[in-house]
Amino acid sequence: MIEAQIHATDGYLLSANIYAANLSIDKNKVLIINSATAVDKKLYHHYAMYISQQGYMVITYDYRGIANSRPKKLRGFEASFLDWGKKDFEGVLNFVSQKFPSQKVVVFGHSIGGTIIGMTEKNKIISGVINIGAQTAYYKDWDKKQRRKIYFLWHIVLPFITAIFGYFPGKMLRMLEDIPKGVITQWHGRRLHENMRMQLESNGIKFYYHTYLNKLLTLGVEDDPIGTEIAIKRIHDAFESCDKELSIIKLVEVPTTKIGHFGFFSRKFKESLWQQTLTWFNAI
Fold first, then answer.
1. In this structure, are residues 133 and 105 in contact, taking their beta carbons and an 8 Å threshold?
2. What is the distance between the alpha carbons of residues 110 and 239, in angstroms, rounded to a whole number?
3. Which of 122, 150, 179, 253 is least surrounded by CB atoms within 10 angstroms?
C-alpha cells in the first residue's frame, strides 16, 4: 500500500491509499472505494487488500473534511456531500484516467459513497458499480423499530452539537470521524423530503445519474436499519439508464447473526460476501 494525495477538481488535496495489483493475476482494472459519511478510509483496508491480491489496483480515499483529508481547523471549513461527489470523487476519477488510462474503472460505493456517484458526469467512464446501503436520509425509509432512535441522533443531537462547535466533533464523542458543518446541515435538510433529486434540483443542483450507462449492482443488508430495501431502491431507481439489479443479503444465507450498515467490511465475510462481489467485478 502506498499513501498518496489526489487533487479534487478544485485543487483540494485528498488523502488516499493506493493498493498495487497482484501482477501475476492482473485484471487490468482499478477499483475505487467511496466511503460512507464520517468514515475513515481505513475501514476498507482489509477489503482493499483482498481485492488487490486478486489482481486489481485499488484506491481508497478520505473526502474533504474527513479523517486525513481534514484541515487543522474544521470550524468554518466549507464542505457538503455535493462537494464530495462533484469535486472529490470526480477528482479521483480524473486521477485514475490519467494514471491508468488503459484500465477499466469499477467502483464500490458504501452508503453516501454510492449516492454521490450520480453527482458527476464523469461517472460515464465507470464500467461497473456495486453500491451497498446507498440511500437518501429520508427518515420514513428507516427501520420502523429504530426510526425514532436514529432520527433523534441524526436530526436532533448531531445538528444541535454541530451548531455549538461549528462542526460535529465525532472523534471526541467516539462517534466515527469529525464532520464538517455543511455536510450535517445538508443531510439534516434531507429528513422530510422523499425525493432527493426534486428537492435539490429545485435549488439549482444538477444530477448525473442518467449519464451512467453500464452495470450496477445495488446491495442491501437484511438488518441494516438505515439502508432498508425501500431506502436503497431510491438511489437504485435514480440510475435510470444503466443495466442494473438489486439484491438483499439475508443473514441466514451468509450465514451470520449480524451485518448492519458497516459489517460487510469485516474479514469474516472474506470467503462469502467478499468473494461474491469479486466474482461480480470479474465479470465486468
1. no
2. 16
3. 253
Q: Count CB atoms within 10 A of the CB of residue 268.
A: 12
Longest dimension (CA), the chain: 53
Cβ neighbors of 150 (< 8 A, separation 6 or more) are 139, 142, 143, 225, 226
Domain 2-137+205-282 has CATH 3.40.50.1820: yes
Give the type of residue at 51. I
Q: Answer for the pair 224, 259: CB distance below 8 angstroms, yes or no.
A: yes
Phi, psi of 261 (to 5 degrees): -85, -25
What's the gap between Cα 119 and its chain centre?
Answer: 12
DSSP per-residue codes, 122-191 = GGGGEEEEEEES-----GGGS-TTTHHHHHHIIIIIHHHHHHHHSEE-TTTTTSSS-EEHHHHHHHHTTT
Q: What is the pLDDT of residues 14-34, one digit of tens each?
A: 999 999 999 999 999 999 999
- The letter for the amino acid at 36 is A
pTM for the whole thing? Answer: 0.96
- The amino acid at residue 77 is F
Q: What is the 3-state secondary structure (H, E, C) of 224-261?
A: CCCCCHHHHHHHHHHCCCCEEEEEEECHHHCCCCCCCC
pLDDT of residue 230 exceeding 90: yes
Q: On the CB side of 54, how many CA atoms lie within 13 Å of its CA?
A: 21
Cell numbers for 77: 471549513
238: Cβ–Cβ under 8 A, 6 or more apart, which residues? 118, 196, 197, 207, 209
Domain boundaries, the chain: 2-137+205-282
